[in-house]
Amino acid sequence: MTTAIKIENLSKAYQLGQIGTGTISRDIERWFVTRVLGREDPFLKLGEVNDRATKGETGVVWSLRDINLDIEQGDVVGIIGQNGAGKSTLLKLLSRVTAPTTGQIKLRGRVASLLEVGTGFHQELTGRENIYLNGSILGMRKREIDRKVDEIVNFSGIERYIDTPVKRYSSGMYVRLAFAVAAHLESEILIVDEVLAVGDAAFQKKCIGKMEEVGKRDGRTVLFVSHNMSSVHSLCKRGILLDNGNMAFDGPVKECVAEYSKQSVLEDAAEHLKEVGSRSVRISGVKVNGELSSMVGLGEGFDVTVRIQAAGLKDPVLFLIVENMTGQQVIHDRVAGRDIGLEFVDGSRKLRLKVPELWLSPGVYSLYFKMISFDGPNAGRSESERILLEVEGKSTNSVRSVLLPNIGWSVEDPNGNRNKGIDERTPRDHSFQS
After folding, report:
1. Which of 174, 238, 316, 428 could form a disulfide with 337 if both were Cys (CB 3.0 to 4.6 A apart)?
2. Mean pLDDT across the chain
């Protein structure tokens, strides 16, 4: 396979606050060392990890640090991570929007980028003129762009406004045209940032389909940054997880998304411990099958335990919630405390739940509890820490469906006679079939 992108020891540092070293003499020293002698900037060696939650000792942070990466031609790669992890910085470096502090990037082929609303278009030109401008920048001839214009306009869905200056476009129209241009012009590498979130749901789905097409049919390399784990999981084969500027994981996208979900759950648990420290009502100690995180098989039931601690808590209402990778609630079960003999909590009580077979699709989920009380001095809301629930197994529907219930199928003839079908009470085989 041909390597489309090769990244070696890539780092990017940014100066926080006032730009400059603080004194004219140091500014001159920096210029002489970097521009004349061609050496590394000595004032960047004090840089710290880009952790936005903590206050640093210096004014320089490393947005990326020592990234080494090889991406083959035709790969569709998802880049994920928390806000501030360095995802957008990496794409800007690959798009030549900014230069690296250290290291180098080798690209094979032309790059089309969609980084943020407003980049790549000239505000005074019309949509049609911007199509030709972008094609010219990529090195395409006019007749080559002529063949693509109608396809681009049709895909964007803004034909009525194509001869209007783009400065009058809404953000949604802007993104529609920008993605259509990036996806249809002849570039070997397509880079797409979270900017697609600006578009409506129908257009996002259309874009995902187009990226699948250019990756599989055209053999183009696609780099996709998104916080929508469902899109990353369905579109990409390989995943890269960034954490505070460092590459935390590089491998199959399923494992990458699972690692990201584990990271999010652990951070949530740490924040929860800080929050509950001074509360008089606590709901904590969530475990699945006796573990802080658990792996269950496809179609298996499991036990959940949770501890409630309070002083004089009256008539609580409890909720069991399970969310998938995108934050969508797939289970939201409610019970009144009085229905399970928990009208009053004074001290510590342990609850045990037996969850039956769910047929959850294979993947990573988070599980947690909420509790509400409307009466007494401790009235209010409480929430437990989240723990990881991983469903293991294979299913033909695992990408498209969250739940895999046993649904009955049958056929009736014109006389209403029911032909033999699949009975909903018969266990179904969800494994791959050849």
Report:
1. 316
2. 79
